[in-house]
């Protein structure tokens, strides 16, 4: 039996085997490194797509002490700004009779029109500033200006002084604050946003009810100068509370584009809704502007007709709150559209109300319907994009509203002066509101693809 010969490995074979093993190891290492890099890339892209407001700050609280304090602060701010501007009718009557006697009513009315327009006009810039994280600075500066011009108005004696103080300066300052408080609730509420906006709108309703009565009674009791000084101290209290409580929740959004961005108008839904808002504000304040004057022209006691505006503003509180509650359940456009339709019908009917009971009925129902519309004005816009750039969208829509707000009252006044009555004024204003209602329906169809659904 022969012994088995030991097998020997050739040196070249051993070397190639080692090289192959080393190459395989390198390939495995490269594949592993590549897979790790790919995983990192996937994680980075996922993080980039995450809404930072959710990643860092969680979902909207939709309640809690801090959230409700912010909304109440917004309501107080709306009371001190929009509510005070709603008292213009008292100043118009007083200036015509006393300080600016001899100046035409239409010329004096431009002070009020500028006020109304400037409440909405700064929204385009203020909304962007709000999205960039600025809250306290614009609120503080604008509050100081409001207090200063309120005290300065007490010393005014000439038309240009009232125009600059009460028209331009007060209007701009109120617009800055109103632009901030319109965007703030969306940082704290999502499911209950309609209710939060309704509560915020109660502030302007309360101010629109109380300020006219307070100004009229104070002027008769202590005179115009001290009336304005007392109003100034009231403004200090309201604006101080607002400054402490109003705050944004989400971090500022980094903007790399132009300061004023019009890309939102590429959305057909947003554009249709802005057209609706513009048309509505051409006529929706006509009844509230002239209801007391038209009632007096029908022989109703002026001491009573004065309170028709207060009645309308008080009843609008019901519409603002109930509209917000319903909007959370069935959608803001679903609530706004029929309310706008009712407001349009009552605008047509208003010139034909000649009795005390008829005017009260118009004031009550119109106040409720217009309150629903005004309280939910920003709600559809908030839902048309991300929360972090809500200020820009709301600001742009408010700027469009400003054009309607400044054009509407002079057009109504010109029609009244040309026809010598309110019949054709009501037809004009009612028609603009009804066309706005049609655009609301078009917005709904553009969003849902039809009429059915929550919107």
Task: Outline the secondary-structure elements.
Blueprint: H1 11-49, H2 52-57, H3 65-85, H4 88-97, H5 105-120, H6 123-131, H7 136-153, H8 159-183, H9 185-188, H10 193-222, H11 224-245, H12 268-281, H13 286-297, H14 302-330, H15 332-349, H16 356-375, H17 379-382, H18 390-419, H19 423-448
Helix pairs in contact: 3-8, 3-10, 3-11, 4-5, 4-10, 5-8, 5-18, 6-8, 6-18, 7-8, 7-11, 8-18, 10-11, 10-14, 10-16, 12-18, 12-19, 13-14, 13-16, 14-15, 14-16, 15-16, 15-19, 18-19
How would you describe this protein?
This protein has 455 residues and is an all-alpha fold. Helix content is 78%, strand content 0%. The chain contains 19 helices and no strands. Helix 5 runs antiparallel to helix 18 and helix 6 packs parallel to helix 8 (159-183). The radius of gyration is 30 Å and the shape is globular. The chain starts with 10 loop residues before the first helix and ends in a 7-residue tail after the last helix. Mean pLDDT is 81; it is low at 1-18 and 39-56.
Q: Mind telling me the C-alpha Rg?
A: 30 Å
Measured distance between first and last alpha carbons: 98 Å
* Category by helix and strand content: mainly alpha
Number of strands: 0
How does the major sheet shape up?
A: none
Contiguous low-pLDDT stretches (5 residues minimum) are 1-18, 39-56
Series of H and E elements = HHHHHHHHHHHHHHHHHHH
- Percent helix, as a range, is over 70%
Q: Averaged pLDDT, please?
A: 81
What's the helix count? 19
Report the portion of residues in β strands.
Answer: under 5%
Based on CA inertia axes, which overall geometry fits? globular
């Amino acid at each position: 039996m022969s012994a088995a010969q030991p097998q020997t490995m050739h040196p070249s074979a051993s070397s190639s085997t080692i090289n192959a093993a080393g190459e395989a190891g390198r390939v495995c290492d490269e594949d592993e490194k590549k897979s790790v890099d790919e995983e990192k890339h996937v994680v980075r892209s996922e993080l980039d797509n995450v809404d930072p407001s959710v990643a860092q700050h969680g979902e909207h609280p939709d309640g809690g002490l801090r959230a409700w304090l912010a909304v109440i602060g917004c309501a107080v701010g709306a009371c001190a700004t929009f509510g005070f501007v709603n008292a213009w009718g008292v100043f118009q009557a007083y200036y015509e009779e006393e300080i600016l006697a001899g100046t035409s009513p239409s010329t004096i009315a431009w002070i009020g029109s500028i006020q109304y327009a400037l409440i909405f006009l700064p929204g385009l810039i203020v909304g962007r500033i709000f999205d960039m994280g600025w809250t306290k600075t614009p609120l503080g500066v604008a509050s100081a200006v409001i207090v200063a011009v309120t005290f300065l108005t007490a010393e005014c004696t000439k038309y240009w002084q009232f125009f600059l103080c009460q028209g331009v300066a007060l209007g701009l300052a109120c617009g800055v604050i109103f632009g901030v408080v319109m965007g703030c609730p969306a940082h704290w509420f999502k499911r209950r946003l309609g209710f939060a906006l309704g509560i915020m709108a109660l502030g302007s309703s309360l101010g629109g009810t109380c300020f006219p009565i307070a100004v009229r009674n104070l002027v008769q009791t202590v005179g115009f100068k001290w009336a304005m000084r007392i109003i100034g101290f009231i403004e200090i209290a309201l604006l101080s509370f607002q400054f402490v409580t109003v705050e944004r929740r989400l971090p500022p959004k980094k903007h790399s584009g132009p300061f004023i961005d019009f890309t939102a108008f590429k959305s057909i839904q947003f554009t249709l809704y802005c057209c609706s808002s513009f048309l509505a504000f051409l006529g929706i304040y006509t009844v509230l502007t002239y209801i007391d004057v038209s009632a007096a022209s029908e022989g109703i006691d002026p001491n009573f007709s004065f309170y028709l505006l207060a009645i309308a503003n008080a009843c609008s509180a019901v519409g603002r709150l109930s509209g917000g509650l319903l909007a959370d359940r069935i959608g803001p456009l679903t609530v706004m559209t029929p309310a706008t339709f009712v407001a349009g019908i009552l605008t047509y009917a208003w010139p034909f109300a000649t009795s005390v009971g008829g005017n009260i009925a118009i004031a009550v129902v119109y106040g409720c319907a217009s309150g629903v519309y005004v309280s939910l004005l920003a709600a559809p816009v908030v839902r048309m994009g991300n929360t972090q750039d809500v200020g820009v969208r709301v600001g742009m829509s408010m700027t469009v509203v400003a054009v309607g707000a400044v054009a509407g009252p002079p057009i109504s006044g010109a029609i009244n002066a040309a026809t010598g009555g309110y019949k054709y004024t009501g037809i004009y204003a009612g028609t603009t509101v009804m066309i706005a209602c049609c655009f609301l329906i078009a917005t709904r169809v553009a969003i849902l693809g039809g009429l059915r659904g929550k919107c």
